[in-house]
Amino acid sequence: MQAIYQMSCIRKHILKSKTYYLEVHDNQMILSEHKNMQNAKYVVQYIWETRVMWKTSENEELCAFGIYYNNRIKWFDSDHNSLNLLKIYLSARVFFGNISIFYDSNQILGQGASSKVCLVKCKKSISHYAAKCISKKYLLQNKSDDRINRLRQEIQILQRIDHPSFVKLYEIYQGENSYYIVTDYLEGHTLYNYIKNYPEDQLPQYQIREAIKIILTALNYLDSINIIHRDIKLENILLQKPNDITSLKIIDFGLAIYQQPLQKLCVCGTPGYIAPEILKSNHDTDYFTQKCDIFSAGVIFYKLLTKKTLFRAENTLEIMEKNKQCQINFQEFEFKLQKESLSLLKAMLNPNPKTRYSAQQCLDHPYFNCKLENINILQEILDKATGFSGITQINYQKDTLSIGQECQAAQIKRCNPTSYKIRIEQRKQTKSPRKYADFQFYYPSFCQMNSFESLSSKGSSYNISNIDNLINDKLDSVIEEEEKQQIYKK
Question: Which tens digit of pLDDT belongs to each residue from 73-82?
Answer without folding.
Answer: 999 999 999 9
